Amino acid sequence: xxxxxxxxxxxxxxxxxxxxxxxxxxxxxxxxxxxxxxxxxxxxxxxxxxxxxxxxxxxxxxxxxxxxxxxxxxxxxxxxxxxxxxxxxxxxxxxxxxxxxxxxxxxxxxxxxxxxxxxxxxxxxxxxxxxxxxxxxxxxxxxxxxxxxxxxxxxxxxxxxxxxxxxxxxxxxxxxxxxxxxxxxxxxxxxxxxxxxxxxxxxxxxxxxxxxxxxxx
Length: 217
Prior knowledge:
Layout: H1 2-6, E1 12-19, E2 23-30, E3 33-38, E4 41-44, H2 47-59, H3 61-65, E5 69-73, H4 79-87, E6 93-98, H5 101-110, E7 119-123, H6 126-132, E8 137-142, H7 157-165, E9 167-178, H8 182-195, E10 201-207, E11 211-216
Parallel strand pairs: 5-6, 5-8, 6-7, 8-9
Antiparallel strand pairs: 1-2, 2-3, 3-4, 9-11, 10-11
Helix pairs in contact: 2-4
């Protein structure tokens, strides 16, 4: 209780550990809320939660409530799952995929991932998961980062072509990207141009500053 009160005055570090995949992972208590950060970005909760909430709002909470299942690629500590369950009131099945066991362990210890009854966690590579799953998803959330960097495979044609195969007929993809340089802006533009004949793409730049949300349907 004392730490929670003090966190409204200054941030309190609850845990700091290193991951070979994500780098240094820090759990901080700030203004009564736990956050998971890497050296250069917010990994779960904080601004990331606001960014993905923005994307979900653009899709429409009522639309998501009617869906049967959601796939989260890049689960981390599960801030988007909290939004889905508590704000959107989504009651369908949520499958969360993450490659980093350290992040998942932190999510379970500090963010109560195991208490979310409609969440099933898969510890594996996102590319392998989408190649092997037989589930058709109504919503796929792509939020894959290593610190503040996005792996190159996310923008390779094969990845989203495979995602399209596991998307239901009226499904939608929420793709969180970061744009800090001209090269990254051009990368996103090339991606949109390539997939414009396969998806309807809505583009929302400068969300919380440097993030760009893409909604593909």
